[in-house]
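Technical annex B. To support the medicinal chemistry partners, we prepared a structural model of the target in complex with NAP, based solely on the information shown next.
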Amino acid sequence: MNTPLEKQVDVIVVGAGFAGLYALHKLRAMGRTTQVIEAAGDVGGVWWWNRYPGARCDVESLQYSYSFDTALEQEWQWTERYAAQPEILAYIQHVADRHDLRRDVRFNTRVESARFDPARERWVVRTDAGAVFSGAHLIMASGSLSVPRLPDIPGIQDFKGKVFHTGSWPHEGVDLTGLRVGVVGTGSSGIQAIPQIARQAAQLTVFQRTANFSIPAWNAPLTPQQQQEFKAAYREHRARAREVGTLYEFSAKGALDVDARQREAEYQRRWDKGGVNFVHSFNDLMVNKASNDTISDFVRARIRGIVKDPAVAEDLCPYDHPLGTKRICVDTGYYETYNRPNVKLVNLRKTPIERFTSNAVRTSDAEYEIDVLVCATGYDALTGAVLGIDIQGRGGLTLREKWAHGPRTLLGLMTAGFPNLYIVTGAGSPSVLVNMVVGIEHHIDWITDCLTWLEQWGRTTIEPTVQAQDRWVDHVNAAANATLLPMANSWFLGANIPGKPRVFMPYAAKIGIYRTECQAVADKGYEGFITGGPRAAATKAATTAAAKEVSQ
Ligand code: FAD
Ligand code: NAP
């Protein structure tokens, strides 16, 4: 029986960022009726929410863009090497206008629950506005970094000043002129915002728990010639990006294969060019700790060279994780900011925050009065948005129960017991480890190819087997363990969220390898997946497998 007032479509998509919009565009072209549901007031995803001063991409603009619209990639003029948030948002809005996408998006609406109805083989989705939608397929394009996390610091509710999170920055902007500002958090967001805030605020106090490695962006306007040269070879560049993610200059040598002078020269050459390319100076930096020590030492020496006060410089030097094992940061004048007279660094490892008072942050040795607190404290990454929805699959199995000990997927795309539920750039896929627009386009193409295949073969449901899923989870763990990545307490592992299971979530393989693995599964008739016949009731095998998994 239909739920009253239920709007029925072929496919429901949660989220209208890069992923949701491309999904809608493709599904429409395939003739599938689609409803996108988006909590924000417009398209853009993270670029709609993250309006903090200094927000910009750290994958170069010409690459951090869709490849599917080949005319647009020629027409669109990026103004800077790394576009700022307003320009990226304008680009996504332009894509929505150009392809008339907004008419199928329900904005200002949050999905609260999704239940699979096995009798109808449909997902029934309920929103915070009380609306009900149903679709044969449900695509979670809800983002990997879309659930901002405020710090659990005692007394924060007593603080009477304004509190902002970088990931939900007010649209009207925040005038910090003449104010005493505190920033908690020195990841990519904090490192971008701090230099900008320092210019406005009367006094800026940065509360740093973990020092991070940051590489200069050397951001600059893109010249017409740079654009023309890149655009002339766009097809080749896009094809290469599908293999490697971002077009860095990859090295064929290990860091210890050359002498110290050559190594230093290579690090300096790349430092002078700027950006994440630096991390690819040698091919073993992410697998060999001794090699990594050489690049980590190089950056620490640069920090000491930039920051005039040696004690502050030392506090800014990361020692507790190898370079690159936390997401590397890219900055404009970050370390230089600490030479300003109005900026103070508080090392929370030495003097932890004890509590907030109504007008200050109290650490173990001092009290810092502030008018405004900026939390650049990150996200409940990868699983936060998906688990934020009460998702119920076959036999009443909820995703929250199933993933209580960490996410389990096949290819990062689907999970056993949840037929026709697709997750874009989810845990178990390269996701946040690569240029995410490349990963997003790949996932949407895989999902839409899968829908076409199901139709061709008269199948109505698809979901992984538990066995194939278990093998994939082992494979993802092995890939991470072959690198230095698990050595950091990073959000890749869920370490930033108290109580979150510590599982290395992204798949640490080159995206080209991953694409080949995904294609091989499809070519073998979706090997590792169970498919159901036309309007068949839930297959016995799938139900038994899901039930077995709950009882494990
Ligand atoms: P998002 O852009 O996160 O969009 C998901 C949308 O889903 C959001 O708008 C959210 O409101 C909505 N949503 C979530 N849950 C619900 C719900 N229950 N109901 C309704 N709507 C919901 N990646 C790079 O590759 N390069 C970069 O330079 C880069 N820079 C970044 C800078 C910042 C500040 C941040 C936060 C991330 C950055 N990223 C970068 C990663 C970024 O997440 C991806 O590049 C990309 O924008 C993700 O697009 P998406 O559509 O998958 O998700
Ligand atoms: P993040 O990397 O998770 O950094 C959060 C920071 O807040 C860390 O320094 C963390 O310290 C600190 N923190 C959290 N809780 C705290 C507490 N209770 N007390 C003190 N400090 C606390 O988050 P993010 O900077 O928002 O970046 C998240 C990801 O988004 C990035 O890694 C990147 O993928 C993407 N991003 C990209 C860009 C870009 O340059 N294009 C910009 C912004 C974001 P600990 O490390 O000790 O936990």
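Notes passed to the chemistry partners:
The chain has a mean pLDDT of 95.
The pocket of flavin-adenine dinucleotide (ligand 1) is lined by residues 14-15, 17-20, 37-40, 45-46, 48, 50, 55, 57-59, 64, 110-111, 141-146, 167, 189, 385, 388-389, 424-425, 435-436, 440 (CB under 6 Å).
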